[in-house]
What does this fold into?
Amino acid sequence: MSVVKEDQYITLQQLTRARYQIIHQLTREKQRFLQHLSFKCNTFSQEVDSSVFGNAMMELFSEKFSLDELAEMPLEDLAGKKGHNRFNDPECVAKSIQKAMRSSYRLDKVVEDSIDLLLGTSITLIRTLQKQLKELEKGIERILAGLEEAQTIESTPGIGKVFTAGIIAEIGQIERFEDETKIAKYAGLYWRKHQSGRFIADDTSLSHNGNQYLRYHLVEAANSVIRHIPEYRAYYEKKYNEVPKHQHKRALVLTARKFVRLVDALLRNHQLYAPKRSVNE
It folds into this structure.
């Protein structure tokens, strides 16, 4: 490998790993926001179906309305001017918000002010992290443009540049691995089995061994692929229906394991993705 290319891999790995960390920070901060929100409005999560982290919802709470103000606010004002006409279904969401606010308990004024401060701080952090995420993704795309092998993975429907970058950054030169099983093992992509005689436990879990960054990008890529490639969707659904517990997570990990075979073939053979033809074609 040339020095220039090695530098590209290292830089790409640093950027994709930084993005991985920010994704986790963003998720944790959103969880904290929900905790504060549930204290301010204890029925909000159950009543409102729209994403609480959408721009309109964020602005709605960052303006620090009291429960009573939200409950009494005219519907057209709440859904229109205050929502900046960005709700997917303004009337439905606005009614849900008002219902949630009316059925929530009222906080002491001092406590409510503190919760408003926490909500505002959390919103600021979320927006800052989202901005950093966009900047990192721009940098990732710039580096990725200089790597020819990126085209092979990115040709797979639903993958996109970010997941392509994360996979390539962690795998590096495909020749490092003897075959696809070695890649899967390196990523720690397998679902542990608890077996005793003829009994096989349903309540098992994902292995936490291996490269967490590669595992993350493969699993996230698989989650996208199942929405674009029927073969992977069918495989996911088959695995989903095999067990009564951890259905989605297990099915996704096993689909990611199947996806590793495709990644290996594309990189090793320097080829673009080609969909399988159906029997009737």
